[in-house]
């Protein structure tokens, strides 16, 4: 039975990857951070009582800033594969916590690689590094592929650049099987609530249910290549099953603006967003409703722009060319963006219907601070 160790197992990708690997018969170990509240909601359905026999899912307390802890866990587990998904993954937040982001996202990668080397596991253990389309940053060429030059535009992107190159360096210097997946944005119903897709689908659901009046967004003109996390974790696994380690771009090849995404999400609920021209966006975007269910929203401002959500330096346009991955790994995405948005909207609508039911009945709600 193969053993996998996943850092960032409590995050979106960690949860989907753990599910995938368990389905393939792996023993899965995850690194979780100590928190003052439970932080395992995304993997609770995978939990197995460690007192039982034949347990294939285990968690270890740890942190990417702690070399000794990582070395001990890797020594104990002796993994065949390590997926380094742990990171301070929010680009905007990285401007506020640049040193921490560099430590965890950049040096954290080194700590994993060096632990594997010092433990003499270089022959046994294969490593996947979660690299990012944020490496491309300032637009140099489109679509972006494995040969496109990097020009990161945030402390997050710069930290991930270190992670990318230290992975390449350990592969070349020590012959390690270590790969970078250069993944473009990927989302799902369990996406973190402050990334723009989930922020929009949550808000659209709550507005439709009359639980919220409007949502504040930042730059509506940024364009991203959005895919489904379920498809992307499959590509991570494939990268570690090859004869030799290589780096791959994972993307859909379709780019969409934040504005278009908002239109798509709200229209799933029968709300048509009508944009009044660029200048007026500072005041908000007016919605006009064609669906009788939401007549009460006719003419209301439901999307507002708050410059606080702008980044000091922005990545304007991402569109990935995943042809190498398609050719060599036989991978291509199964989900389209409209299918992804529909799934997210349906999940958030369901979530907030339950929340509203509890609130209306005078019970405690899902969200304590709203
Ligand atoms: P999430 O933010 O959902 O998950 C990040 C995970 O990292 C969480 O489990 C988090 O723990 C953990 N983590 C954060 N800080 C530390 C630390 N100091 N030590 C150990 N673990 C830590 O991210 P995603 O699942 O979306 O992304 C997975 C990886 O892929 C990340 O490295 C991200 O940067 C990268 N990536 C993501 C893309 C995307 O579009 N989703 C695209 C390209 C790259 P906790 O739950 O306790 O916060
Ligand atoms: P990104 O994702 O920065 O691409 O990083 P995010 O969803 O945060 O932003 C996408 C684009 O939307 C614009 N935007 C807003 N973003 C947020 N979060 N909130 C808003 O209100 C808002 N309004 C507009 C942003 O300016 C940006 O242009 C994600 C993360 O998962 C990284 O870890 C990963 O490496 C990259 O994707 C690929």
From TrEMBL:
Its EC number is 4.2.1.47. One of its GO terms (biological process) is 'de novo' GDP-L-fucose biosynthetic process. It catalyses: GDP-alpha-D-mannose = GDP-4-dehydro-alpha-D-rhamnose + H2O. Its cofactor is NADP(+). Pfam families: GDP_Man_Dehyd. One of its GO terms (molecular function) is GDP-mannose 4,6-dehydratase activity. The keyword NADP applies. Keywords: Lyase, NADP. HAMAP family: GDP_Man_dehydratase. Belongs to the NAD(P)-dependent epimerase/dehydratase family. GDP-mannose 4,6-dehydratase subfamily. Catalyzes the conversion of GDP-D-mannose to GDP-4-dehydro-6-deoxy-D-mannose. This is GDP-mannose 4,6-dehydratase. The gene is gmd.
